[in-house]
Amino acid sequence: MLSMNFWQHPLVETAGYFSVVVLCLILTMVLFEIVTKYKNWQEIQKGNVAVAMATGGKIFGVANIFRYSIENHNSLPEMMGWGLYGFGLLIIAYFLFEFLTPKFNIDREIENDNRSVGFISLSISVGLSFVIGASIS
Length: 137
Hints:
The protein is mainly alpha-helical and 137 residues long. It contains seven helices and no strands. The termini are far apart.
C-alpha cells in the first residue's frame, strides 16, 4: 500500500494538477468551440490569425484562472470547482463582449480574420482572467 507521503510529494502533486488542468483545458476548448459560430481549429489550420489570437487568449485565460485556483485551494476537487467556475465567468464575458458591440458581429469579424477584433478578444480573455483569478483566490 502506498503511503500518504507519496501522494503529497511535490512531483506527484504537480503531475496531478497538470493532468487535471490539461483535461479541464480540453473540456473548456470544446465548450468554446460550441459557443463560437466558427470552427476554431479549422480556421487556425487555414491561417486565420484573428481566430488564433482569440483562441490563444482563451487558452491563456483559462490556464491563468486555474493557476490562481491551484495557488489558493488545498484540494483537487476544490481547485477544479473554482477553476471551472472561473471558466464560466470567462464564457459570460465572451457573451457580454458580443452583446456590448451591437454595431458588428464579433464571431463574424473574427471568422473573417479581422485581426483587430481578434486582438481585442485576446486582450479581454487575458485581462479578465486576472480579475477572475484574483476573485476566486
